[in-house]
Specification:
By secondary structure, this protein is mainly α. Helix content is 72%, strand content 3%. It has helices at residues 2-10, 23-47, 52-65, 67-92, 100-116, 125-151, 155-174, 208-224, 227-237, 239-244, 249-276, 288-297, 302-326, 330-352; strands at residues 12-17, 353-358. It has a two-stranded antiparallel ribbon. Helix 4 runs parallel beside helix 8 (208-224), helix 4 (67-92) crosses helix 12 (288-297) and helix 8 runs antiparallel to helix 13 (302-326).
């Protein structure tokens, strides 16, 4: 009787800790989780009245076969990539930068100041706007960094609150002295041709894509091959262990926040000078928090950030078509993003554990 009861006890589902999974297998699990999220999202859209053939056309056929739509995806992906990189740099040092949108705003403000005041020679103005945007983002992240390093203030709260201050300052400018004098609308005046990112000669694709790819290459080398990347890995694993090994944690956090703020400011520049051609009161919406999600989905890997950003851009462009032609609300696109995030978050369970069924 006892042996039979022991056998019965073993029947069912057993949870077992996996051995460390290889990078290739983790990548496969990530891809499967993303496709699972897409499948669930498409089922919801079909139940909402959109046919499967329409989804195939909007998200695959019309984007792959239409040069205009494909270039729109690439343009939309560039700020997503840079926002994702800004989040990844900070997250690797356990600095949870939720203030990317505020840093984007101040990056765009600094770049717009250069543009509307014609600072510097015209041939170098775009470069000056780029540099000013980066330092604008750095300026807006320094206070949360100081509070974190010196007073151990939670950076999630401080960076998030800085977003609201930046947004209200943006409104102050656009409804005040920076209002477009020619139209009276609450946005800055149109940038001159020399202050807009140049086209690459294919559709409407501009230099923002080049900047995004270069930043991916630089950050990939920094994370994977440099000594500083090794320091970040140690700090990410354990801040206490980093201190015991002699790493100056405060200095590393300061450097990382400066880089993250600089990238966030550049992201604001890419949107204002690459998409809007001016600074508007809503240019930053959707990029900052999407960058955080993109970094999370890509496990802070720059190459993964590039791939996931293309996916997010495809969802945005395809979602715009669904809004226009099928009256699907944009909230449905946001729901799709949330489902994909939940599926990827759940995939962490299968990376760490194995289910064993015995009946």
């Amino acid at each position: 009787m006892s042996s039979a009861s022991n056998i019965n006890k073993r029947k069912g589902v057993k949870l077992e800790v996996r051995d460390p999974m290889s990078f290739a297998n983790k990548f496969i699990v990530l891809i499967l989780s993303i496709f699972t999220g897409l499948f669930i999202s498409f089922v919801i859209l079909i139940l909402s009245g959109v046919s499967g053939s329409a989804l195939w056309k909007e998200f695959v056929v019309y984007i792959v076969t239409s040069e205009k739509n494909l270039s729109s995806v690439l343009i939309q992906a560039s700020p997503f990539v840079v926002a994702g990189l800004a989040a990844a740099v900070a997250f690797r040092a356990r600095f949870w930068n939720i203030g990317i949108e505020g840093q984007m705003i101040f990056g765009a403000i600094a770049a717009t100041y250069i543009a509307i005041n014609d600072v510097g020679p015209e041939p170098t103005r775009l470069l000056l706007m780029f540099i000013a945007a980066g330092f604008g983002g750095v300026f807006w992240i320094l206070l949360p960094a100081f509070l974190k390093i010196k007073l151990d203030v939670n950076e999630i709260i401080s960076t998030l609150l800085m977003n609201y201050i930046a947004f209200n300052f943006l409104l102050h400018l656009l409804y005040g002295s920076w209002r477009d004098p020619s139209t009276g609308f609450p946005n800055s005046e149109q940038y001159d041709v020399s202050e807009i990112l140049p086209l690459l000669g294919w559709q409407s694709l501009n230099f923002s894509s080049v900047i995004a790819v270069l930043l991916v290459i630089i950050l990939f080398w920094l994370f994977m091959s440099s000594r500083f990347g090794f320091v970040l890995n140690v700090l990410h694993a354990s801040s206490d262990m980093a201190r015991y090994t002699g790493i100056r944690v405060s200095l590393v956090i300061l450097i990382v926040t400066i880089v993250s703020g600089f990238l966030s400011g550049i992201c604001g520049f890419l949107v204002s000078a690459g998409i809007e051609s001016r600074m508007t009161q809503s240019f930053f919406i959707g990029f900052g928090f999407s960058g955080i999600l993109i970094s999370f989905l890509a496990r802070d890997n720059p190459i993964g950030i590039l791939v996931v950003s293309l996916l997010f851009a495809t969802l945005v462009i395809g979602g715009q078509s669904l809004q226009v032609f099928y009256q699907i609300p944009f909230a449905m696109v946001q729901l799709m993003q949330a489902i994909i995030v939940m599926c990827v978050a759940s995939s962490e369970f299968f990376i760490r554990y194995r289910l064993i069924f015995s009946f």
